[in-house]
Design goal:
Blueprint (H helix, E strand, L loop, with lengths): L5 H33 L6 H10 L5 H20 L3 H21 L4 H17 L4 H18 L4 H13 L8 H16 L9 H16 L3 H14 L4 H19 L3
Helix pairs in contact: 2-3, 3-4, 3-5, 4-5, 5-6, 5-7, 6-7, 7-8, 8-9, 9-10, 10-11
Length: about 260
């Protein structure tokens, strides 16, 4: 058996300490954002993001994590019709993404984020859709071409397919496949289903796509599974699940 030279072992130990310290710090943010998410306080992510932006240890890893939270909170603000807050957050997110893109110009996650950020701009200013559409789709395709094995990339690509009109290339079936692939990747990656808001949100997305396609049984099964996995997340129990059951009753013609 080949024995590693002492200097090599020291490098591994030193590098391991760096990675562990970075992970520990990132993990604190991850747990905090997750708890806010499941307790219906996602708007408070902005406070966490501000802490991350002010962190003197601005590693690329931390910046990428910050961008993921920007992605989540901007979508939240748009969903809540808080467009001013969404616009402010998107402006900051775009600036940070520009910084990260210079470091990682070919990273599929960067392409995926660019695509979704363009999608946010379209949601905030629909009249710009014809101008921005091509850039959104171009970046989405670049993302999935280089990141088929990346869970976040699959989520970002699925978002474009799900929310884009069919006439422009939207495809619910393909979106569903990508969301499911993202779940599979996370479930096969150690630690990726623990305190991970994106895992819960992707499960919700699977339910929503099935609901939109009137696959009510599959959507119901997904939401039931969610309530078992994370019973604290009352949005599923109080909003999504009852709404689904009502649609199911209407389709079946029952009261």
């Amino acid at each position: 058996m080949k024995i590693m030279p002492k200097w090599g072992l020291l490098v591994v130990i030193f590098y391991g300490c760096i990675v562990w310290n970075a992970y520990s710090s990132d993990n604190d943010y991850r747990t905090e954002t997750y708890n806010l998410y499941i307790n219906g306080k996602m708007a408070q992510w902005i406070e966490v993001i501000n802490q991350m932006d002010a962190n003197p240890s601005q590693t690329t890893q931390l910046q990428m994590q910050t961008l993921q939270y920007y992605y989540g909170v901007i979508g939240h603000f748009i969903d809540k019709k808080q467009n001013d807050k969404a616009s402010q957050a998107l402006k900051k997110a775009d600036s940070l993404l520009t910084v990260v893109e210079k470091k990682l110009p070919e990273d599929p996650v960067v392409f995926g984020l660019k695509s979704n950020f363009i999608g946010f701009r379209i949601a905030l200013s629909p009249l710009k859709a014809t101008v921005l559409f091509r850039g959104m789709l171009k970046n989405a395709n670049k993302a999935i071409e280089g990141g088929k094995d990346n869970a976040f990339v699959n989520v970002l690509y699925a978002n474009i397919l799900f929310y884009m009109p069919t006439m422009f290339g939207g495809d619910n079936n393909k979106a569903l496949d990508c969301y499911k692939r993202a779940l599979s990747i996370m479930e096969q990656t150690p630690g990726e289903i623990t305190d991970n808001w994106l895992y819960i949100q992707t499960m919700i997305s699977v339910g929503l796509v099935n609901e939109k396609m009137e696959n009510f049984e599959a959507a119901e099964q997904q939401f039931q599974q969610l309530m078992e996995i994370e019973p604290r997340y009352m949005y599923v129990k109080d909003v999504l699940y009852p709404r689904l059951l009502e649609k199911k009753r209407e389709k079946n013609g029952t009261n």
